Amino acid sequence: MKLTEMAYRRVVVKLGTSVLTSGSKRLDKAHMVELARQMACLMRAGIEVVLCTSGAIAAGREHLQYPVLPDTMANKQLLAAVGQGQLILAWSQLFAIYGLHVGQLLLTRADLHDRERYLNARDTLNALLAHNIIPIINENDAVATNEIKVGDNDNLSARAALLCDADLLILLTDQKGLFDADPRKHPDAKLISQVVNIDDSLRLLAGGSISGLGTGGMATKLEAADIARRAGIEVVIASGHHPDVIHKAVSKEAVGTHFSAIENPLESRKQWLLAGPVTEGVLVLDAGAASAVTQQGRSLLSKGISAVKGEFERGATLQLVDESGKVLARGMTRYGADALVKIAGKHSDEIESVLGYDYGGAIVHRNDMVLL
Ligand SMILES: Nc1ncnc2c1ncn2[C@@H]1O[C@H](COP(=O)(O)OP(=O)(O)O)[C@@H](O)[C@H]1O
Ligand SMILES: N[C@@H](CCC(=O)OP(=O)(O)O)C(=O)O
């Protein structure tokens, strides 16, 4: 199939540190140019590419000649601050070979948390692509503290895919795809070539990163795949060193692990709810409310809340869990924590008399809720 006949219009390619360094301690520019060639080829065929690149910390270590530093947050930020410049310089030089400009977006979770900033970032991505410029995204590691960071580029790339309304997310790594066990520990593990549903049994197969290069391993790649496919985006996890891997993934050739998108994707605001805000608290639902919310698509009423955890204001995004602690949904609350503590377990009719005001019976309205 020719690239111009492809179903995909916009693709996010995520390159892990493991791919960019080819397992070494330095950026493998020879391989990066090959990846740039494949992406440039897509752009030429009219398929827009957004690159989500890791490697800032590795590039910083290389540039500073492998300093011996204690493993602290500040030192990682130092390495990222040095390395991000080197990384974007490398990419801009490599894409220039193919006559392409690049534009850098350094994001943190805080940029996605606020819907207005989220929409701003989306406008920037669209503007770059409209001018045939490749957006290059990384986390703004140099300023991101634990509270405001996404934390790993798998999740960041899924959020970028939602942000720019991509139709394919390609996660390239040092393994051929998702295996039924970590191939580093189980050499006889088998590649899973197709995934139609991400459930707890699949999550159990996906381990962390043990190479010392990447962050999160397959576990974060599965989280990313789950977010993307709920938004109607297909996902491929494959080896960044497989010949012509990007071209093959976009051509729908069998490569790595393919995740189908779900058929009725979430609408845009719910996509943001799923991927944008950090949750600030937890509502524990009794059995009746858990069933009403998950089985019948109902809003959450005060009567069904058995506990409230955390300090939060009205408008915060919360986790909704059942009494065993299983996360059922995330959603935006119409009442702050102080009020909820007073009305939890009470009938909707009592809200006004208990609080002296009433924002309505729905504590988390079903339009402000995403089931997980
Ligand atoms: N079920 C699995 N299938 C494949 N790889 C797995 C699995 N579980 C854990 N892994 C680990 O995930 C690693 C890839 O993730 P990571 O090290 O974070 O790389 P990257 O830099 O590409 O994000 C692999 O090297 C592998 O050891
Ligand atoms: N933002 C960090 C990478 C974080 C990360 O998730 O790394 P990886 O697992 O290699 O994709 C960096 O540029 O070094």
Plain-language structure description:
With about 375 residues, this protein is of the alpha/beta class. The chain folds into two domains: about 5-270, Acetylglutamate kinase-like (Carbamate kinase, 3-Layer(aba) Sandwich), CATH 3.40.1160.10; about 280-370, Archaeosine Trna-guanine Transglycosylase, Chain: A, domain 4 (Roll). The protein has 14 helices and 15 strands. It has helices at about 15-20, 30-45, 55-65, 75-95, 110-115, 115-130, 155-165, 200-205, 215-230, 245-250, 270-275, 285-295, 335-345, 350-355; strands at about 10-15, 50-55, 100-105, 135-140, 170-175, 195, 235-240, 255-260, 280-285, 300, 305-310, 315-320, 325-330, 360-365, 370. The strands form three sheets. It has an eight-stranded mixed beta sheet, sandwiched between helices. The protein has a five-stranded mixed beta sheet with strand order 11-9-12-13-15, sandwiched between helices. Strand 12 (about 315-320) and strand 13 (about 325-330) form a beta hairpin. The chain is globular, with a radius of gyration of 22 Å. The structure holds adenosine-5'-diphosphate and the ligand N[C@@H](CCC(=O)OP(=O)(O)O)C(=O)O.
Keywords:
alpha/beta, Archaeosine Trna-guanine Transglycosylase, Chain: A, domain 4, 2 domains, 8-stranded mixed sheet, 19% strand, globular, binds adenosine-5'-diphosphate, binds ligand VHF
